[in-house]
């Protein structure tokens, strides 16, 4: 009787130890799985055009809080005017725009797209 009791306890203890050792191995396998890269977030800035400097490719915007913000554009920047394809010529002082892109280290928005919304 004592022998079967000790065998049962030994068997139960063995199963518990085996399960305890198996859990960290499963956790390690899950951690090693590669994570998909996060898509970069696109920032948005809207306001009224105050000035355009074509020599430095910078547009100065006045935002809602009457704060001047700077948008940098390049040859790859897409321009639209009233939701139709446009050009840099559509960007004029006093027009409202929505700019999409990423901020650089100087807190300027490097635009990938500039949507001109209203005419003068």
Please describe what this structure looks like.
The chain has one helix at 2-31, and strands at 43-53, 58-62, 68-72, 78-81, 84-85, 96-103, 109-116. The chain is of the alpha+beta class and 120 residues long. A 5-stranded mixed β-barrel has the order 1-2-3-7-6. It starts with a helix and ends with a strand. The chain is rod-shaped, with a radius of gyration of 31 Å. Strand 2 and strand 3 form a beta hairpin. It contains 1 helix and 7 strands; from the N terminus they run H-E-E-E-E-E-E-E. The model has no long low-confidence stretch (mean pLDDT 84).
List the keywords.
rod-shaped; alpha+beta; about 120 residues; 5-stranded mixed barrel
Mean pLDDT: 84
Helix content: 25-40%
Strands, total number:
7
Q: What characteristic shape results from the CA principal axes?
A: rod-shaped
Number of helices: 1
Q: Please summarize the sheet with the most strands.
A: 5 strands, mixed, barrel
